[in-house]
Write a structure and sequence with these properties.
The protein is built from seven helices and ten strands. The protein has helices at about 45-60, 95-100, 160-170, 185-190, 195, 225-235, 245-250, and strands at about 20-30, 65, 75-85, 110-115, 125-135, 150, 170-175, 195-210, 210-220, 265-275. A hairpin with an 8-residue loop joins strand 2 and strand 3 (about 75-85). The longest helix has 13 residues, at about 45-60.
């Protein structure tokens, strides 16, 4: 286990060990060829690729810690991570980014690297995130949108879609609009509303030419929460359930979970927020 893997029982990571400093990385990636952000046994995670790039470029063995996971096929415009490196590595942020990008596949780019406070933690210091979901509307899917958007052709009830989007804003128990990671039985998860309650500050619905975009900003998102929200919204917009069904997913935590999960290809992590 590397020094940056060591975390306290409280779940908060220690600062760098003596002789080390902490770097903050902002990262963009196309999720199509990767098995998600999280390091995987046998490789294939974006985290694996960045760890390997640091070793190749600098011969430093460290492990980047991300602000959170993204699933296989999900993209990121500005994922945030940190890592600890020796203080003797006196490279500028631009030099770090150039060195790592030279060792990374073109589907992963380091946008910026900067020194940060020793106590900074990419995950635990985050105060919120923004996600965008893209839906391609024409009859034929553009080849340039394959694996970049969900292809949904046919009429949509935009008034019902807007009505449902308005219902999302606020604090709700998203138990019925999230999935179980498998770390506890679902019966137990349903008895812990504090763990499944989140506040959504903003939902934007935009029609941008051939693309319909939904953007969500909140204090946090559960496993597959955005994809289940979008899939359920489109289920209503296509006339397959009334809008009151969607409202009940938010207001009644005792009912069955939605099984309408939008594909990963249309989802983008847009921004990770820090500070108030």
């Amino acid at each position: 286990m590397s020094r940056s893997d060591v975390e306290s029982k409280a779940g908060m990571q220690r600062g760098p060990e003596p002789g080390f400093k902490r770097l903050k990385l902002t990262i963009a990636y196309c999720g199509t060829p990767w098995r998600g952000w999280q390091s995987q046994e046998g490789g294939g995670g974006v985290q694996d690729e960045i760890n390997a790039a640091i070793r190749k470029a600098t011969r430093i063995d460290t492990r980047v810690q991300g602000s959170g996971r993204t699933d296989a096929g999900v993209h990121a415009l500005a994922q945030v991570a940190h890592c600890d490196v020796p203080e003797t590595a006196r490279m500028s942020g631009e030099s770090w980014a150039n060195a790592l990008n030279a060792c990374l596949p073109l589907t992963i780019r380091i946008l910026s690297v900067e020194d940060t406070a020793p106590c900074y933690h990419a995950r635990f210091d985050a105060t919120g995130k923004s996600y965008r979901y893209r839906i391609w509307r024409p009859r034929m899917l553009s080849p340039f949108e394959a694996d970049r958007a969900w292809h949904v052709y046919g009429p949509l009830d935009m008034d019902a879609l807007r009505w449902c989007c308005e219902k999302i804003v606020g604090t709700h128990n998203f138990i019925r609009l999230s999935a179980n990671r498998g770390d506890m039985p679902e019966t137990q998860r349903r008895t812990l509303p504090d763990k499944t309650t989140r506040t959504i500050h903003r939902v934007d619905l935009r029609e941008n030419g051939d693309v319909l975009e939904l953007e969500f900003e909140g204090d946090g998102f559960l496993y597959k929460m955005v994809r289940l929200i979008v899939g359920s919204l489109l289920h209503v917009a296509r006339g397959r359930e009334p809008k009151e069904w969607f409202a009940s997913l938010l207001s009644d935590p005792t009912g069955p979970q939605s099984n309408q999960t939008a594909p990963a290809c249309g989802l983008y992590l847009v921004r990770v927020n820090y500070g108030s």
